[in-house]
Amino acid sequence: MHAAISAEKQEARVAALRAEIESLETEFGRGDDAEAIVKKHIKLLHRYNEAKDATQILIGKLAAQRETTIRQIHEDLELLDD
Fold first, then answer.
1. Which of 31, 37, 65, 74 is an S-S bond match for 79, by CB 3.0 to 4.6 Å?
2. From the CA atom positions of the chain, what is the Rg in Å?
3. Per its UniProt record, what Pfam families does this chain match (predicted)?
4. Is the dihedral of CA 34, 39, 40, 46 positive or negative?
5. pLDDT tens digits for 40-70?
6. How does DSSP assign 23-76, residue by residue?
């Protein structure tokens, strides 16, 4: 048997969900086509990966110049694995 939810709690929950929907629509675009959103995210992921790859190349060159390991450069710059 389910516990009854008071009308006030239910209204508060509905209001919170509506606020969350409003926030997400503002962040991701109101009424945007799902396919367009996916394409935009893929484009952004490509840009991120290109920047990350370029950064790793520079870190590799810095490690070679300093005659140390890439891992040591990561530790020196406080770059985390996650």
1. 74
2. 23
3. Swi5
4. positive
5. 999 999 999 999 999 999 999 999 999 999 9
6. HHHHHH-TT--HHHHHHHHHHHHHHHHHHHHHHHHHHHHHHHHHTS-HHHHHHH
